[in-house]
Specification:
2 domains, 299 residues, mainly alpha, 81% helix
């Protein structure tokens, strides 16, 4: 083979390798771009899944903002969210809004914690150690639990006056019953086999409570606390109508009496937000503490 033919073969091989490398580089570039777009799509899909629950609320707020401005709804009774927010900023600027929020939180948490301190131990005693006595008391407890605290408003005022004790009593009464009933149900729902095994291994009452009954009833107890917290925030308005001069419930009552509608909506929205926030916190604590709880997912 001549020297010229050898050089031509090497040149052809070089060109072929160059074309192959160019195609490989273009393929890698296309694959990288496809992978980049795929990652971006997965990120958008993940964010969309997280925000899916909020789309309805955002749509409602936007419709509420636009409706009064175009005369679809009466702005006198349904002021736009921007007017409500402006009222909140005005109260916050005067240093009054945080005072109402803190006082309402203190009253709510005081009544809720007291209901937990009474309802949870009483529920364990009735559900775990005196089940037959619980059957005897069940109709009476159910009857008392069905009595709305607001209907007992005159009695609370009669017995406790119009001070803080009456407000505490309304929130305490409202929160006590769901916590008590769910605690009893949680204790009685513990698998009897676990109790028999613990007793057969010589466990005393204290060890049986700490290792079997309390962990087994804890999910039900958290459910009762969340229900009690929700009811406590709902009854906050009634509690702060009893001779109060501060608090979010008083703010609602005072705004309705003086026809300050944006302030009324503001206080109602804050109460709803605080209730939702506390519910999320309790859910977080439940998932943090109860690691053995099975999560059922429907796909």
């Amino acid at each position: 083979m001549s020297k010229v033919q050898t050089q031509e073969g090497e040149m052809s091989s070089f060109k072929a390798n160059a074309v192959t490398n160019t195609l490989n580089f273009a393929g890698r570039k296309e694959n990288g771009a496809a992978l980049k777009w795929s990652s971006l799509f997965e990120l958008i899909s993940s964010v969309n899944d997280r925000l899916l629950n909020w789309y309805g609320l955002v749509a409602l707020i936007l419709l509420w903002e636009v409706g009064p401005r175009y005369g679809w709804i009466d702005s006198q009774f349904f002021p736009p969210p921007s007017a409500i927010l402006a009222e909140g900023l005005r109260l916050a600027g005067k240093g009054k809004l945080h005072v109402h929020i803190l006082i309402s939180l203190r009253r709510t948490f005081t009544g809720l914690v007291a209901a937990m301190a009474v309802g949870i131990p009483f529920g364990f005693v009735l559900g775990g150690w005196f089940p037959r006595f619980t059957l005897f008391l069940r109709p009476l407890l159910r009857l008392l639990g069905q009595i709305n605290a607001f209907s007992l408003f005159p009695l609370f005022v009669l017995f406790f006056g119009i001070g803080e004790l009456a407000k505490f009593s309304i929130i305490f009464w409202s929160s006590l019953w769901p916590i008590l009933f769910t605690t009893i149900a949680g204790v009685q729902g513990v698998d009897p086999l676990f109790v028999k095994v613990a007793r057969s291994m010589g466990s005393g009452r204290l060890l049986l409570f700490g290792k079997v009954l309390f962990p087994g009833a804890l999910p039900s107890i958290f459910t009762g606390i969340r229900l009690g917290a929700t009811i406590a925030f709902l009854m906050l308005i009634a509690a702060e109508m009893v001779g109060a001069s501060t608090g979010l419930g008083w703010l609602i009552h005072n705004s309705s009496m003086n026809y300050v509608i944006p302030r009324l909506y503001l206080a109602a929205a804050i109460i709803a937000g605080l209730g939702m926030g506390l519910n999320y916190i309790l859910h977080f604590l439940e998932n943090l503490i109860i690691r053995w709880k099975e999560v059922v997912e429907v796909k």
